[in-house]
Amino acid sequence: MPLLTVSLSHPTLIPRPLHPDRLIYEEKVDGFRKLAYKDGGQGRLVSRQGKDFTRRFAELASAIRALRYRTLILDGEVARYDERLVSRFEWLREGPKDELATPPMFMAFDCLQLDKDDLRGQALRVRRECLETVLDGAPLCCCPCGGSRIMG
Hints:
The protein has 152 residues and is of the alpha+beta class. The chain has helices at residues 58-65, 90-93, 124-135, and strands spanning 23-25, 32-39, 42-46, 71-79, 105-114, 117-118, 141-142, 149-151. The strands form two sheets. Strands 2, 3, 4, 5, 6 and 7 form a six-stranded mixed β-sheet that branches. A two-stranded antiparallel sheet has the order 1-8.
C-alpha cells in the first residue's frame, strides 16, 4: 500500500478554552516539526513545507528505517536535550560547544499510518497505543506518552 498524503495541522484560535471530561496533554518539545515516513526499506523525515530533512538527520532516518513495521507515518518533532533534559531548539541549528547534549531525537506524538491502516480517523487513544507499540525499544525515537497526562 502506498503511503498516505499528509499535511500537518496548524494551531487554531478558538473563542474559549475547551474543558472536556478527559484531557490528554504532554510536555512541549522545542524542536523542528517533522513527519517520519517509512516505506519498506526507506526512512525519511519531511517538514511541514515538504522539505526533505533525511540527509540532515541521517541517524534518525536510519532509526525510522529500522522500525519493525513495513509502512509508517509518524508525526513528531526533532529535538536535542541538555543535561537537565530540557529541549534546546538552538542546538538543532548549531550544536552545543562544551555542554552535554543528546543527539537529535525524534519525539513522536502521533501515528498516522501503520502498515495498511490509515489511523487518522481513529480516536487519539488508539493512535497513541499504536505509537507506543511502534516505538517500543526504538533507539533515537521516543514517544513522550510516558509524560502524557489524562485528566478526569
